[in-house]
Write a structure and sequence with these properties.
By secondary structure, the chain is of the alpha/beta class. The chain has five helices and nine strands, in the order H-E-H-E-E-E-E-E-E-H-E-H-E-H. The longest helix is centred in the N-terminal third of the chain and has 13 residues.
């Protein structure tokens, strides 16, 4: 949606699983209004569209995310068909929130890594973001890294992945 508002000169496509609810209908309508292709959006009849509530603490800037996976829990490897895409960039959001893609894969380590490898092999620039599920990051992220051109993390996620502190005891950056 942000890229559509920036009027990028390349086609945009949405891919995911939504519910047959008001939120799902809003997503479809918004994508169509903005010229984002929606053939990659699948409606899961028994699921609600995923949503998150983010609660931030003003004094510290720390936040907590309450997430309902909804239809996103049904997104799997078979939902991705990079042979049909006209996209140049594949952005996967979020490692750690996509139940079927976070599962182990015998060849790639995780299903997410399989999808990213397939996208990369199809010639797409690949990018991903993660959810701050710090205990799980070390298992989920390393298999994906060889197949990513861009990887987005915050300071807490970087610390969890590398074991290197990026802040002093007072909380200030090093």
């Amino acid at each position: 949606v942000d890229l559509a508002h920036m009027r990028v000169p390349y086609p945009l496509e949405a891919l995911g699983v939504i519910g047959p609810d008001d939120d799902g209908r809003f997503i479809l309508a918004d994508c169509r209004r903005l010229g984002i292709r929606t053939r990659g959006l699948r409606i899961a009849r028994r699921a609600r569209t995923a949503f998150s509530h983010i609660v931030s603490v003003r004094g510290t800037g720390r936040r907590t995310i309450f997430h309902h996976a909804g239809g996103s829990a049904w997104l799997g490897v078979r939902d991705f068909d990079f042979a049909r895409t006209q996209a140049r960039l594949f952005l996967l959001g979020f490692i750690g929130l996509l139940e079927r893609l976070d599962r182990p894969d015998a060849r790639y380590g995780t299903a997410t890594a399989r999808v990213l490898a397939t996208a990369s092999n199809a010639g797409l620039v690949t990018a991903a973001d993660v959810v701050s599920d710090l205990p799980r990051l070390r298992a989920l992220v390393p298999p994906a890294l060889p197949h990513l051109d861009w990887f987005f993390v915050n300071e807490l996620e970087a610390e969890a992945l590398t074991g290197i502190s990026v802040r002093t005891r007072s909380g200030a950056p090093h």
